[in-house]
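Continuing the batch. This is chain 6 of the set; chains 1 through 5 are on the previous pages. Same settings as before, nothing changed between runs. Recording input and output for traceability.
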Amino acid sequence: MLPRERVEAALAHEEPDLVPWGEHSIDYTTYEMVLGRPSFVQGKFKLNRALWDGRRDEIVESDKRDRVDLVRALDMDIVTVGRCPEKGHHPSPLEQVDHETYRDGRGNLYRISATTHDLMPYEIRTDDYVVPTVEALQEQIDQVISEGVERPDDSVWEVARHVMDEMQGTHWVNTCIGDIGFPMLGPTDEVRYLNLALHPELHAKVVELQARRAIATLPLYAEQGFDSVMPCGDLGTSTGLLCSPDILRDHVVDWWRAFTDEAKRLGLRIIKHCCGSIWEAMDYIVEGGFEGYEGIQASGGMDMKRLKEEYGDKLVLWGGVWNEHLIGGTVADIMREGKYAIKWGAPGGGFIYGASHSLAVGTKYENLMAMKECRDTWGRYPISVTD
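Output for chain 6:
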């Protein structure tokens, strides 16, 4: 079977010849260690610096080349690709404060994370933030209803179109998009959670605004010909939901259904990415019309065996190998987790192999190769995995 045929079979809850494998996110370090050359794909601060230097075209060429080559090198079935910086994009650099700290024009401070290599918020001003009113939110909603969302410059699709030209005849092309989630408002997590508690009168309008915008963007992706869209919005931590599941029930799930209905009407398959321990949200994800669930965080208690038993007929399950162990674990850890995920997730179809989150900065080469070996060894149908 072709790689895209394997994914089509998995989405139909049928058994292909081999468990399909894909990732929603792969950081630049994996590209570099597998392909043996520098890469800008998901290049973190390295990418920020290159954009400040006006190297947009170089970044795009790296992205076009490396996404295709990595999927082929690892024998993956799915390639995930999104928008790229538009032609001529050349942002002004932030002011460098010290070797790891930068300041923007508003006085916000950012630091380079030693763990993820991202330029992360460090001190963000909140003194001038004003909580919007119901009326102000309604004005924004009305504007989206009447005008839609702004169309991006056509050059943002340059990488995606190249990937489709090169691979869509044989592989499945997925893209990550914005999601509808808890009604958070504010410049920092602290402010967002405070506003969630202090302004319940805003919940419905905040979610509606998210939803109207998300639904209005779907035609942009359908026009480009993506096979599937993956709304990326986390609902939980490793110990439970970020907020009460009642908020999902009261404000989110109906909009999820409108969102997924529109995606399907446009011919897009729709799979929810979500990290964390989210057992309390699982029924709502099903009710919301998502076809699959990716990002299965086993370290947060999202056990593949239980998921398959309770939701395997309702959702395609995509994941299996701990992100944490790809970075800090051993080959034995990866072999055990990959084997377990395939044993319980793959029988009957409806399963896509992958990391519990992503191939993130710090992923070890030997662990990635062990992950591949698991799929190649135990992922052939009919599944026959012994303890």
